[in-house]
Write a structure and sequence with these properties.
With about 110 residues, the chain is mainly alpha-helical. It is about 75% helix and about 0% strand. The chain has 6 helices and no strands. α2 packs antiparallel against α3, α2 packs parallel to α4 and α3 (about 35-45) runs antiparallel to α4. It starts with a helix and ends in a 9-residue tail after the last helix. The mean pLDDT is about 80.
Length: about 110
């Protein structure tokens, strides 16, 4: 592994970055959270830094925090935004499909 990657993997800021990227993935679907966690996991397996157990805990905590933020955003939207009649009909007819595809649309996951 190149020297500069060793230095980056040894930095405590890597865990903060993993937490942030995993958390933002719930709100912004273009965030590379899986790639970030896998790359840090490879570095952890190769060099022992960051600690793999800490990486797992931080990435799970970031994903949980992002989901909670997304939930709170959706929960605090006004009722006229959350439940228009057309959306209710669409969810009733094709609810599963809407939920799967809403994951990849910015803002739709929160709504």
């Amino acid at each position: 592994m190149p020297h500069f990657l060793n230095a980056i993997a040894a930095s405590p800021w890597v865990l903060a970055l993993v937490f942030l990227v995993a958390g933002l993935d719930a709100i912004l679907p273009f965030m590379p959270s899986e790639s970030t966690v896998v790359a840090c996991g490879v570095a952890a397996a190769n060099t022992g830094r960051p600690l793999l157990s800490l990486l797992i805990i931080v990435s799970a905590a970031g994903a949980y925090a992002g989901d909670q933020i997304s939930f709170r955003i959706g929960r605090n939207l006004p009722a006229r935004v959350k439940r228009p009649r057309a959306v209710r009909r669409l969810l009733h007819r094709r609810g599963g499909l809407v939920i799967v595809f809403a994951r990849y649309l910015p803002g739709a996951r929160s709504a």
